[in-house]
Each structure stands twice: as structure tokens, then as C-alpha cells.
Amino acid sequence: MATIEVDEYTKFTVAFAARMANLSESAIIRRLVEGSALTADKHPEPIDKSVTVYADYEGHRVRARFTEPARVEIIDGPLAGQSFKTPTGAARAVVREYNPTINDNRNGWTFWQIDNESGVRTPLQSIRPGTVRSGRGSLKGRIVASEDWDSTEVNESIADDFGLAP
User: Fold this and answer.
1) Beta strand pairing status for 71-74 and 83-84?
2) Distance of CA 79 to the CA centre of its chain
3) Global pTM value
4) Distance of alpha carbon 32 from its chain centroid, rounded?
5) What does the chain look like in DSSP terms, one character per residue?
6) Tens digits of per-residue pLDDT, 1-31?
7) Which residues are paired to 57 by β-bridges?
8) Which of 58, 94, 95, 156 would staple 104 via disulfide (CB 3.0–4.6 Å)?
9) CA pair distance 96, 99, nearest whole angstrom
10) For 114-166, how does the pLDDT look when each residue is reduced to its tens digit (9 = 90+)?
11) CA-to-CA distance for 29 and 84, rounded, in angstroms?
């Protein structure tokens, strides 16, 4: 079996990821390599994997195309042709366009809806990459807390780590 040399922090990070995912360290590395750009050419994807989305804001419906992993390109209205790296960036632009006097902070994953023509509102969050959950909570059954996890000593130690100790 081949070996690779990594610094201590990388080793710690890979080991932590392996424990959290209940996988071996080599499986974590394999997944990282399989998901890299270097291996993307081995498994060509369809050219158009975009999804039509829309947002209703201040009496205006704005249509856009969502392309994984997170790009949103607005296809109509005054922002037509503008492309954003994230749904949140696109949502903020829509808010600024139609209501420039308010704070534009929005969660783009819930602001945009999938245009499935059924009339049922389905947030973009529902197809967000990496949101497939195996149960209630993404760490269900994977965290084991010690008996003293909420003791005064542990809490004081954590507070001290963050400079919040009394």
C-alpha cells in the first residue's frame, strides 16, 4: 500500500473527519480525490444541470437558473444577465434592486424557490449539495458524550479557552 506524508494538522483533520463520518482515513482521502477537479474528466456530467428558480419579492417575480454547486444567474427583470457565485449573493441583489433602503441580508437557499410548475413552494435548500441527512440531525448516532460533558469543570474550561472565564 502506498503512503503519503502530511503535516500534523492535516493528519489531525483527516482523522477527525474519519471519526465524524465513521469511515477510515483512507476512505476520507479517497472521497476528497474523487471529488477533485483532477478526476472530474473521468466522469463527464451532462452539460446543462441547471434548475429554474424564482423569487417573489416586493410584488415582483424574479426568475433565475441555479447551477451546482451554488451559482445563480438571473434571467429576467432589471438584473437579467447578472450571475452570482451564491444564492445569497443573488438574493441580496434582488433585495437591493427592489428595496434599497433596507438591510439586504437574506439566506439565498430559502429566498429562492424551485420552479416546478406545481404551485407548491419548494425552497432551493431542498436540493442544496451536501444536505442529504441520514436521520434527524446530521450527527445522529455519531457523537458520544462523556458523563461529565456538562459539568461545571468542563464548562469553566471551555469558557477559559475562549477568554470568558469569570
Assistant:
1) antiparallel
2) 24
3) 0.52
4) 16
5) -------HHHHHHHHHHHHHHT--HHHHHHHHHHTSGGGGGGSPPPS---EEEEEEETTEEEEEEEETTTEEEE-SSTTTT-EESSHHHHHHHHHHHH-TTS-----HHHHSEE--SSS---BGGGG-TT---SSSSTTTTT----TTTTSHHHHHHHHHHTT---
6) 677 888 888 888 888 888 888 888 888 888 8
7) 60
8) 95
9) 5
10) 988 777 888 998 888 765 545 556 566 666 777 777 788 888 888 888 888 76
11) 30
Kindly give, in sequence order, each residue whose CB lies less than 8 Å from that of residue 165, ignoring residues fewer than 6 positions away: 156, 159
Which of 38-61 are b and which e, b meaning 16 or more Cβ less than 10 Å from the residue's Cβ?
eeeeeeeeeeeeebebbbebeeee
Question: Cell numbers 444536505 label which residue?
Answer: 131
Q: What does the pLDDT look like over 100-115, one tens digit per residue?
A: 999 999 999 999 999 8
Between CA 80 and CA 105 the distance in angstroms is 21
Closest CA to 70 of 13, 10, 130: 130
Question: And the C-alpha cell for 141?
Answer: 448516532
Locus of grid cell 441580496: 92
